[in-house]
Write a structure and sequence with these properties.
Layout: E1 3-8, H1 14-22, E2 27-32, H2 35-43, E3 49-56, E4 60-61, H3 63-71, E5 75-83, E6 87-90, E7 101-104, H4 106-111, H5 113-117, E8 123-126, H6 130-140, E9 145-149, H7 151-156, E10 160-163, E11 173-180, E12 193-199, H8 206-216, E13 220-228, E14 236-243, H9 247-260, E15 262-270
Parallel strand pairs: 1-2, 1-3, 7-8, 7-9
Antiparallel strand pairs: 3-4, 3-11, 5-11, 6-9, 6-10, 12-14, 12-15, 13-14
Amino acid sequence: MGVRVAIQGIKGSNHHQVADAYFKEVFELVECLSFHGLVDTLLSKEADQGVMALENSIAGSIIPNYALVQSNNLHVIGEYYHQIHHHLMALKGQNIKDIREVRSHPMALLQCREYLKTQSHIRMIEDVDTAQTARQIQEGKLKGVAAIAPKIAAEMYELEILESEIQTIKNNATRFIIIKTKNTVIPLEEINKASIRFITDHKRGSLATVLNVMSDCNLNLTKIQSLPVIETPWKYSFFVDITFEAYENFSKAKSLLSIMTEEFQVIGEYKNARS
């Protein structure tokens, strides 16, 4: 079956679509109902690689996933930007007036909130996955219940789309990362993006000094995210994504930052999906 790929969700979900798009060869899908479950399949070697959503252009970062990757010593080996399309679907033969509740992943409900405000008769219920909700409706023949899910889920689970493209902002994309327990070695000339984590001391200007080093080494900072260091109240670690034209520039910055910061860690070196 080829490489075993773990996703959060089931067939028909956005994670499944990303796996299909990213992995060109035949692969075996490993379905997980949570991001913690996804990580567990990698650590137990039930899966070889994983697909994990990390940030959305509307809702922002999925902050717990940063800690999941770092604390389990996982490596980012690639990324993929996926355009999100949300559709309201239910059992065939129903219309919007028949629907009393809509179920979906909390992120999907948030991204469709403006549309759902216009349907005051519909109650919102959070679920673990978009496609799983669609499957539950089909398997349970649940009348009066709708799912918000990708179009492919309606096709796979024989549901009818009642409203298409109901996301509030039409240009809605999510960045997914490809992770595994060991870093994949690709030719250095192909690497033009990296994810790193570090902790700075409490001296004034420490973070600014680090950012200046990145600039001096011709690195372009594309993302910075701070997370509390659980063991030390009021101390923060920084997760940073950087792009560069020459690996030598990043190599120089690594040498400097490993001296200047605490707990410096390279989480991944990979190809920039937007270059």
